[in-house]
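Quick note —
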Amino acid sequence: MTLEGGPTIAIRERYDEVVSDRWPGFVRPQRDELLSSWVHRLAFANGIAPRSFGRVLGFSGGMWSPSLDMNFQTDAVNILRAHTGVPLPRLSAMSLKGSPLKRLLLPLRDDGSRRGPTWLQFCPQCLAEDGQPNFRKHWRLAIKISCSKHRCGLRDRCPFCRNRIAAFNQAALVPQHYCARCGFDLRLSSKVPVSPSARLLDQCIFDICKLEAMTGSLDRSSLVRRLLHSPGICSLDPATPLVNLSASARIRCMGRLAAQPNDWLTDDDDIAVSHCDGPFCWWEVSLH
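Predicted structure written out below.
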């Protein structure tokens, strides 16, 4: 076939071999990246805003990508696997389904209060340094209040409009690190100060939770229960569990806890026993 003034076009016998069901845009999952974060980046790479991309995966709206993180819906996952080539185990590793730390995850809800919890936190400097800005799995945990690399507190809201992170509801074709409500670039957020002692306690708690999760002892210890009730232990908000506090309130909570003896962290039945002294922490691990 010859087009007037153009080249001759012919369909070769092997033309069907170059046809693929793969989406044209592909992004590689990053270390510790949350599944929803990768899906938002995938949507952008293929020229589709996240709100519309949810319908591609069979979701009707709402917090569709955080729901995918938690429930790992089979139909949506199969679509992702078929059109990206990312194997099922890799996709599963980015999700939170079956996480032993599930009780410590920030809730997937929005009560409209700017003093309450939101579902996701972020470190502005991590986003600014990323070649491909992405949200980490551990930013979903209520026990995480700081970034050990940048020595600053995590944020859970856009500092400009004070709304939660809602890339799943983004109707414009912009990267996920821009606020879906006001368009503010989250990478430009100012640093949140956190005392060294609070950052140290934050990292110690995170490490011991990972340790107990890996050994399968987290369900048998009372650590999660005590962490959830830590606002009462430090007399911050006795009636409110840790997961129901905003990032700023949890930073205050960790600061108060760091200023008192840490015997509240353990009891005689726990697998891991902590001992903190000055700027260092040692964890004595018993497997009895």
